[in-house]
Amino acid sequence: MRIYNTLTRNVELIKPNEEGKIAMYTCGPTVYHFAHIGNLRSYIMEDVLEKTLRYEGYDVKRVMNITDVGHLSSDADTGEDKMLKGAKREHKTVMEIAKFYTDAFFSDCAKLNIKTPDAVEPATNCIPEFINMIKVLLEKGYAYQAGENIYFDTSKLDNYYVFGNQNEDELMVGVRDDVTEDTNKRNKNDFVLWFTKSKFEDQALKWDSPWGVGYPGWHIECSCISMKHLGEYMDIHCGGIDNMFPHHTNEIAQSESYLGHKWCNYWFHVHHLNDESGKMSKSKGEFLTVSLLESKGYNPLVYRMFALQSHYRKPLTFSYDALDQVAATYKKLVNKINAIPEEGSVDEAEVKAWHDKFAETVGNDVNTAMGITLLYDALKADVNGATKRAIIGDYDYVLGLDLLKAASSAENEAGAEDPELVAYVESKIAERKEAKKAKDFAKADSIRAELLEKGIVIEDTREGVKWKRA
Ligand SMILES: [Zn+2]
User: Mind listing the pLDDT tens digit for each residue in 373-385?
Assistant: First the structure.
């Protein structure tokens, strides 16, 4: 398996610390709101990376944190307590909010066939671990107390900007007007490890610490939670490209200062999903969630396929037109699979040869688009039906598009029906479509009722009208 390593800026062959095993970490969601599909693009591509490693035979252990404390998106004493804001908005307690949106996140993941990591740890479970790491950083002289907060001293490191492409001037561009500089800091990029003094006196969750009652900074979470589950050495750390600076830079600074040795060898970053107006965010435009796509009739796996069709290191632009195209492609693909004859027995040698081809293709920096192309090649291959289905099932372990399942339900919908009935239902569907076009909704409804009387249920979806027996 080769991936682009942001640390070395090269595509590299992954050499794990321990033969045959991969220790992998993913920055988890902030749980005060639904995840938007841009965040989920990262989780889809990380899921493909994990599954490709498993597909190649690695024993993968993957860990994820849940950010359920603090200001969540900023290390600075600025902005607002988003958990508390969410709680006030919805008249719930902060922990109820965290639980609700954690469940919502994993429900979205399930719909997108994103595997739940082997260990999932909420930040609020690990306060003693955070305090311990901060104590050590103070003892080693990497941290200092100022204005009643504890800060990490970035000037103690020779190479704080590990990802190389940041400089002070570039960083200035990203500074928002409404963010005032924290005057306690010795250096511009010093970051808070523990707050006892915050601008928000109404911070909802606080814990006792050697430095007073307060709460942890954001970055400390990922360092401690990964070490709790994966130990002192990690192979692959994943996240959205947004997290590269300052979050991942700060994770490395504190982890390696604490450990006294290199921490993680490979950094995998997924690029942005944009909408047509630019970068997607929670604050502007339509808030795109999995539920919103479902309410518009899209199968969430069509969004997964949309993500797989482009490379994770390129920005991707979302539009409904593009998604419609993928929905049509998905439907055609399922129909093709549905049309594979039920014949012969599985030729294991062929399946193995196609398996190796797929591992090599997708294993080359997670080239999912080429993986899908290879799937089409397999559909055209000179092998029997049973072998074809076996290859598709094998590829779909990584692609996660439920292709065989979708094909078999498509088969149940129409394949086994008596042709006379199919012709009748289809003519009624066409008639209803005309009625709807003419805005004769009463007629459209009566056609639906007429079909229902005959035991046929119709359903309007983005991929057209579907029908089944009631
Ligand atoms: Zn993180």
Answer: 999 999 999 999 9
